[in-house]
Amino acid sequence: MSDLLERLRARGWRMTSQRRVVAEVLDGDHVHLTADEVHARAVARLPEISRATVYNALGELVSLGEVIEVSTDGRAKRYDPNAHRPHQHLVCSRCGTIRDVHPAGDPLTDLPAEQRFGFTVSAVEVTYRGLCPGCA
Amino acid sequence: MSDLLERLRARGWRMTSQRRVVAEVLDGDHVHLTADEVHARAVARLPEISRATVYNALGELVSLGEVIEVSTDGRAKRYDPNAHRPHQHLVCSRCGTIRDVHPAGDPLTDLPAEQRFGFTVSAVEVTYRGLCPGCA
DNA sequence: TTAGTTGCAAAGGCTTTGCACGCGC
DNA sequence: GCGCGTGCAAAGCCTTTGCAACTAA
């Protein structure tokens, strides 16, 4: 499970107790926490960790490509550690729950050349919206 | 061109000079302005219009379903008046330019039932990312 | 040792809110 | 005239920044 920590160590990411806790909090499936939620969980293990440090660590994990930043609503960004298997998000419009999904096919190829306006397209984000079983 | 204003009037939206200006500023194709940009353009025509009024009007247009709110980056939300033809966005990762695109096929059907986690899926947002001709 | 990391507190960008005044219907 | 819309200024949420003290390698 703790792939994230492994990978970070392997990549020579300078490790501190704060960074380790942030990485541990993020590890897992269907994890999509806001910076504040990460901070809250980190504080439970390391009471003196500051918000700024959490933001620093998250920003680095994103630049390293080990965590994906998602803005599913207009509110706080969420951080998704599932960066190594391409996937999309299924979001409940009511309670905000997010699930990772892996539809068949490559959405990248769905945009024909004549619709690309000369762009070089390199990535696609897909968000499915609806109501989860609990909210429906 | 001024479909938006027409529709709003037809729907009995209480009209004021401020609301008219906001609707006029938003009207057109490939329009994806931030609230602040809308305000700036509105001020050019109606110097005393306030930011709060612009936010109010935008919020209502979104609830009415006449304008779509898009958060392409983690920054300010953008407002897209092209709410009546389903479409997706092509975003330049460098300069932020947005183009509306209309790929073939219905992305809604791409998510098989066994991947829906019991959700009732009602909408899909697709964002293609890349570099525009100018930035490439 | 030494460059990189942390915590604090303050500032910053974007958005919402409360309330008195003003205007569309 | 009534009720909703407007403007102002203040507050709010989320995030970034500056800087001195600290610590992993």
From TrEMBL, chains A, B:
<feature type="binding site">
    <location>
        <position position="95"/>
    </location>
    <ligand>
        <name>Zn(2+)</name>
    </ligand>
</feature>
<dbReference type="GO" id="GO:0000976">
    <property type="term" value="F:transcription cis-regulatory region binding"/>
</dbReference>
<dbReference type="Pfam" id="PF01475">
    <property type="entry name" value="FUR"/>
</dbReference>
<keyword id="KW-0678">Repressor</keyword>
<dbReference type="GO" id="GO:0008270">
    <property type="term" value="F:zinc ion binding"/>
</dbReference>
<keyword id="KW-0479">Metal-binding</keyword>
<feature type="binding site">
    <location>
        <position position="132"/>
    </location>
    <ligand>
        <name>Zn(2+)</name>
    </ligand>
</feature>
<dbReference type="InterPro" id="IPR002481">
    <property type="entry name" value="FUR"/>
</dbReference>
<keyword id="KW-0238">DNA-binding</keyword>
<dbReference type="InterPro" id="IPR036390">
    <property type="entry name" value="WH_DNA-bd_sf"/>
</dbReference>
<comment type="similarity">
    <text>Belongs to the Fur family.</text>
</comment>
<dbReference type="GO" id="GO:0003700">
    <property type="term" value="F:DNA-binding transcription factor activity"/>
</dbReference>
<dbReference type="InterPro" id="IPR036388">
    <property type="entry name" value="WH-like_DNA-bd_sf"/>
</dbReference>
<dbReference type="InterPro" id="IPR043135">
    <property type="entry name" value="Fur_C"/>
</dbReference>
<keyword id="KW-0805">Transcription regulation</keyword>
<dbReference type="GO" id="GO:1900376">
    <property type="term" value="P:regulation of secondary metabolite biosynthetic process"/>
</dbReference>
<dbReference type="GO" id="GO:0045892">
    <property type="term" value="P:negative regulation of DNA-templated transcription"/>
</dbReference>
<feature type="binding site">
    <location>
        <position position="135"/>
    </location>
    <ligand>
        <name>Zn(2+)</name>
    </ligand>
</feature>
<protein>
    <submittedName>
        <fullName>Transcriptional repressor</fullName>
    </submittedName>
</protein>
<keyword id="KW-0862">Zinc</keyword>
<feature type="binding site">
    <location>
        <position position="92"/>
    </location>
    <ligand>
        <name>Zn(2+)</name>
    </ligand>
</feature>
<keyword id="KW-0804">Transcription</keyword>
